[in-house]
Amino acid sequence: MGLRQLLPYQQNMESISKAGLDVILRTPKTCDLPQIKECDRGTIEPNILDVNYSSWVVSFTSLKNFTQKHIDFCHCDIAQMKHPSALSKFDRMMTAAKGRKIVVFLDYDGTLSPIVDDPDRAFMSDAMRSAVSEVARYFPTAIISGRCRDKVYEFVQLTDVYYAGSHGMDIMAPLRHLKNNDGKYQTRAVDKKGNEVVLFQPAQDFLPAIQEILKVLEEKTKRIQGVVIENNRFCISVHFRRVCKEVMEIRPSIKWDKGYALEYLLDTLGFGSSGDVLPLYIGDDRTDEDAFKVIESRGEGYSIIVSSIPKDTRASYSLRDPSEVKSFLLRLARWKTKLFY
Ligand SMILES: O=P(O)(O)OC[C@H]1O[C@H](O[C@H]2O[C@H](CO)[C@@H](O)[C@H](O)[C@H]2O)[C@H](O)[C@@H](O)[C@@H]1O
């Protein structure tokens, strides 16, 4: 069954857009895509697949090791060969970061937790939790997720991390650097540790419309097996995993995304005017590209895509999967401790 059958009603779509909401169809996450079927060139030998990935991560200098046949086969163009592994380039990255303040930003699904069929069971391993906790000991660390902020906290359970949910439309940030005239979408709250914080929710006005659409979607899809509707507070995910492997997102059509959230957090963490800050963002999804773009336009910082297959990205570096993310985070924390001794 396809999307049209599930949400067929032109009328619904019209009311969604009248309410000022966008409907975005997201392709499945990386690991949903069986690598072999992704290529339309017939049977692929496993080692060739590996060459495909390698040629995406290699730098120009290693390019001479690949024959033209490999390059043609893999559809690799020069522009794609710019995402070296953040693990293999770690020393170089950190040499350039010396004396700068690194602020770490992490996506959740597909970055800190593996992609699984049931969105409610995307648990993070204890090992990953302690890696994130280590990093947060030494660097300001924030998680920016498409999920509802409370849900991400439920999974992560770390109090020394800042959280932004709904693709950055629901940010809990420290109060200390807040300017009085920072706008109407900010309210004071208290975090899990009892500290006064600020909640920045630029899509607040859309909440009634989102709730209305949520009710309609739940009603219309309740008899369709395999559809999971996720209430992410300021946006809705409709998972069709067992129906047609698609995820539809409904979100307010406002100029706000993970990139804006990154900048907002840098500001409220006190790095707004600091010239020596280096944002480091790790994410695997199309929505993370907005944050990569911000890092690219700042001209400083590190953007790292998590992907085990080549894909179009603005990120400068890559990691294959959450287990490489964990290794990278541990290395980052250790690097910082070495600087102290
Ligand atoms: O920004 P993120 O933290 O990456 O969140 C984006 C979406 O992630 C979740 O969906 C994805 O992960 C699920 C669990 O592994 C998987 O079942 C689904 O197919 C993926 O699309 C989450 O469920 C969504 O609400 C988030 O928007």
TrEMBL record:
Functional note: Removes the phosphate from trehalose 6-phosphate to produce free trehalose.
Q: What is this protein called?
A: Trehalose 6-phosphate phosphatase
Report the EC number(s), separated by commas if there are several.
3.1.3.12
Q: What GO terms are given for molecular function?
A: trehalose-phosphatase activity
Question: Does the keyword section mention Ligase?
Answer: no
Listed pathway(s): Glycan biosynthesis; trehalose biosynthesis
Record family assignment: Belongs to the trehalose phosphatase family.
Q: What does the entry give for GO biological process?
A: trehalose biosynthetic process
The cofactors named for this UniProt entry are: a divalent metal cation
Identify the keywords attached in UniProt to this record, alphabetized.
Answer: Hydrolase
